[in-house]
Every structure is written in C-alpha cells, then in structure tokens.
Amino acid sequence: MMKTKYISILLLGLLGSFFTISSVVAETQSKSVLGRELRSHPRLLFTDSDEIRVNNLLKTNKFAKKLSDKLHREADYLLTVPVEYRFYEDGSKVPPLHISREYVYRMITLSMAYRLYNDDRYAEKVKESLEYIFTLPLWNTKPEHFLDVAEMTTAVAIAYDWTYDYLPESLKGKIRFMVKRYVLDHAVKEYREGDDTSWAKRRTNWNVVCNTGMSLGALAFAEDYVGLADTIITNAVRYMPNCLRFFAPDGVCYEGPAYWAYTNVYLSMMMKAMDDNLGSCMGIDTLPGISNTARFYVDATSPSKRIFNFGDCTEGILPYAGPAYFYFSRKFQQPEVARFARETIMSLLDNKERTRWHFFLSLAWCDISKPEESTRSEKVKIYRGINDIVIFREGHKKDDLFLIAKGGAPDMAHQQMDAGNFIIERYGIRWLEDLGADNYDLPGFWDSKDGGKRWNYFRNTNYSHNTLIINNNRQYVPGRAYVTDKVESKKQTSVAIDLTSVYQKDADRVIRRFSLSNKGLMIVGDSIYLKDTEGSVCWNAVTSSKVLLDGKKAVLEKDGKKFVLQILSPKNAKFSTTEAKPFTPFENPVTGYTLLQIRLDDCPEKEQYIEVQLGE
What we know:
Elements: E1 10-14, E2 17-21, E3 32-33, E4 36-37, H1 48-60, H2 62-80, H3 96-117, H4 120-133, H5 146-162, H6 169-193, H7 205-220, H8 226-239, H9 241-244, H10 257-278, H11 293-299, H12 324-331, H13 335-349, H14 361-364, E5 380-383, E6 389-393, E7 402-406, E8 422-426, E9 429-432, E10 468-470, E11 482-488, E12 492-498, E13 507-517, E14 522-530, E15 535-543, E16 546-550, E17 553-558, E18 561-569, E19 575-579, E20 594-603, E21 607-614
Antiparallel strand pairs: 1-2, 3-4, 5-6, 6-7, 7-8, 8-9, 10-15, 11-12, 12-13, 13-14, 14-21, 15-20, 16-17, 17-18, 18-21, 19-20
Helix pairs in contact: 1-2, 2-3, 3-4, 3-5, 5-6, 5-7, 6-8, 7-8, 7-10, 10-12, 12-13
GO molecular function: lyase activity
Protein name: Heparinase II/III-like C-terminal domain-containing protein
InterPro entries: Chondroitin_lyas, Hepar_II_III_C
C-alpha cells in the first residue's frame, strides 16, 4: 500500500468557484482529541492491530476464513457494478436513506478488501464511488432527512480512513470540505440550537445513529478540525443517553427488535471508535442495560431462530446477523453472544444471498470465544425496561416449547397496543404470532397520541395481537404494563404482568399470568375486574395455522404437526374463529391469518377469569 504522508495547500474547484484550504498538517505531527494523542490512519473501527489479529485468525479459524471468502466474492462483485446507485432494476427511484445504506455497505466491503488483500482495484473503486457520492443532492445546508446524511457520512468517513494512503490529496480535500460544510457544521448548530425533538437529542434510534455518524466523521478528519472533533464528540456523548437511558435496567430496546439491531450496530461503532481513539467509551458503556443488551437479544430469539417481532417490526424477519454481537461479546466478555453471532452469521455464509450494510465489520471484530454449556440452563428469564420481557424456555432444542411475552408502553416510539402480547413455539413452529408492522406511509401513521390516527390501523391495535379486548375497546395509549412477580414451585414457574393501566377505561384490575409446568405445558390465566357488569371480554390470538375447533379445544395444524389449546376456565366458554383483516383498504393486506377467540359477552359479574392451556 502507499504510505506517503502529504503536506500541501489544496485548491479545489466547487460549484464553478475556487476556495482555498489551509495547509494540511502532516499526520505525524502530534495532535489530540479530547486530550488524547490522535492515532494515525486507519483509526476507525478496524485499526492496524485489528488487521493483524484478523490476518492471524485467517490462518487458523474456519469461520473467519469463510467470512473472508464471502468478503472477497462480494468485493469482486462490487468491482463490476456501476458506482451510481439511484434506481432499482424496475426503474423506480431508490429512497435516499437506502442509497446511503448501500454506500455504507460498498465502502466497508471494498475498503476492507483493499486492506486485507492488497489489491488497488478495490481502492480505485472506492475513489470512483466517493467522487460520485458528492454529486448527490444529499449535500446541502438544510438537509430534509438527516438520517440519510448521517449514514452517508458513516460511509464516507470509513472509506476516507481505510483508503487514506491511496486517495489523491485533491479528493481528500474535497471530502473534508464537503463533510465539514454540509454535515459537521450543521451538527454543531443542532447541538447548540436544537430542542428535544432534534435528531441530536431525541430519545429514539435517530439519536444514536446520527450522533455516531457525526462522531465518525469528526474523527476521520480530526487532524484538520481538532476543535470541531472535540465539540462533536463531547456533545454526542452528552446527548446519546437521551435514547440509551431507556435500555435500563436490563438491556431491552423498547423500540422493538428491528430497532435493536439498527441502534446497536451504530452504538457498537461509536463505542469501538471511542475505545480505539479516546481510550474509553466516556461512560456510555456503563449506562444501565448497555452491557446486557446483546444477551437480551440472544435470549429473545426462539429455538427456530426467529425474533419476537413486536412493535414496528416485520413479521417473519430473521435475527440480526452482523457485527454488533462481536463488539459486545468482546467488550463485556460474553462468549455465549459470540457463539450466537457465529451461528447466525454462518447461515448467511452458507447461501448465495448478498449480504448488506455493515456486515463485514463482523470479520474486523470477529470473536471466536466459546461459552460453557451451563450458560444455557435458565428456563425463565425476565428482562425489565419500558417493555418488560418474559421468556419461558423448555430447552434449547428446536422442538422445545418457547414462549415470550411483553408488558407495554403504546405511546413510545414504534409501539403498538400490544401489552400482554406473546408468541409461542413448539417443534420449531410459531403457533401464535405477531403480524408486525404496517406501511409507514399510511396517513397519520405517526400520530400516536391517545385517539391518534395510528390507532385506526389493525396491526397497531390490540385487535391484532395475542392479548385482551375489553368492551370492544382499544388499549389506553398512555398506559403501562409491567411484570409484577415471579413465583416458583416444584410443579411450575409463573410470571404475572399487570395490564390494569392499559385497560383502565374498562377495568379496575387486569392481571395476566403465564405459568410453565414441569410437564412442558403453558397456562395463560387472565384475572379481569370489570368496572361494570354486562361488559365483554375477548381473549384474542393470531395464527397462520389451520384451526380445528371442538368446543373448549382448538387444534392447530401446520407442517405436519399439531398444537392444542384448551380452555380450563370458564366452564361455559368455547373457542371461535374469525378472519384477520385490516380495518381500511389502505393498509397492507393480512393473508392467511385467523383470529382464535374466546368471547365472554354480557358478563353478569365484574370479576372474570379466563385460563387457557397451551400444549399437548
């Protein structure tokens, strides 16, 4: 590789005019960021020492070698595609955010291949791509959707840093100028003037993604803009806890598993960059829940390797397969997380599908540590947070029974009226399911206040979840549902979730208790204290299985297997079915799903109890 260091004055043409960039100080001159001497390039996410470690791994470890082979194939493929990426194959326009994400993938893949395989063709493709990237309309002084900008800044920062020795000084100067003017200067203004809805300060995934993008950009160009780097990193660390505080105490990402992956891949990049360049994570790693969040995600993945897709998370989505696991497993000494990561990533390496996004950071951060088998013994786990999560696990074999349930906070970002919701699996089949997210572009989809338009859509309501419908009403949006107790005996272990707050308009008390018996049966018991007599209660469940009804018994059939639900209480109750369908013609269709229900109408007494056994 080229190792020349440049000291020059750059004159660049931009928009028909010329501007002057002051003398670039040699990289070897001592500079510091937040009091720590600045590393030479490469300094972001994949340092020289990381590169040495990976090259040694490739000599002895089959998993790392398979990852490397996949990287080589993907990088070679990217050499054959045009640098322009604005249209899909059908001619439709690619949304700006997806353009940014594609370049995150391309820049990581090509730049890493350049470093590991010493082949200038990859660096040349990076150079051509960077030249094209700065022709996109994304670069302006008033960005409409800053998430697009933050992800593209991530792509540019990594490419600039990893191919620093190859890129011509004229292009590096242009990159620094453009990113400073249209991104980093904007970020400083946002830190100074933005309110709590700003991307910089809000409590959602945007906060972590955007602040990480700004920090990577600042570190990439830190020798040229030392004071700017100090300001951006200081503010990023100051405001990221606005989102991360909701991981307390046990690591649950309240926005759901899809946003767990998004938030944590950027969080892991931020922490890795700080570890390498500042010597610590400046307290981010000690925030409650952060050290446990990867363990939560691993435990919440079913034996069939499917996630609990609550909130705005697509039904049927596979577990995240990417580098965040390896950062957390190495940072917090969690070999069980590393094992899960290798198993999950291996499934991608064994097929011909293209990988995406930050995937090949998995090679840069690869962790081959192995846990003791005793780490898989716990059958019931509770993870507390905005959404308390309860996990019942008969074992870790694919056929074993698995149930995961949640509390709820409908008014939080990306949430639904799903307090008390659960999914259950046996034989590797999901018998009761979550329909997941609908179309983000539906009118009023983000109007999540009580009575807001978000609640006009089927998938967002309790009508589409495995929970209760009382008096034919929706759950109360500002309400909260949470785990109250765990009771263990020789015969069973049970956990209760208090749903009273989300049903407060219709009931004085609602408790849902899940119990796992030693025989591998689940019992779901609902204690409901209605405000008035003659009310109604509907026990609701969603399934894509064939349903056979026999009064108090429902037999679900799928893939040659059967799963039985039996009503234990009340004595006169029976199952019924109805088609699961959207409320409006604008929503995504719901195809092949049935609502399995127990309906108690005109209840003569306020106190009602429904108990259902799930299993053989």
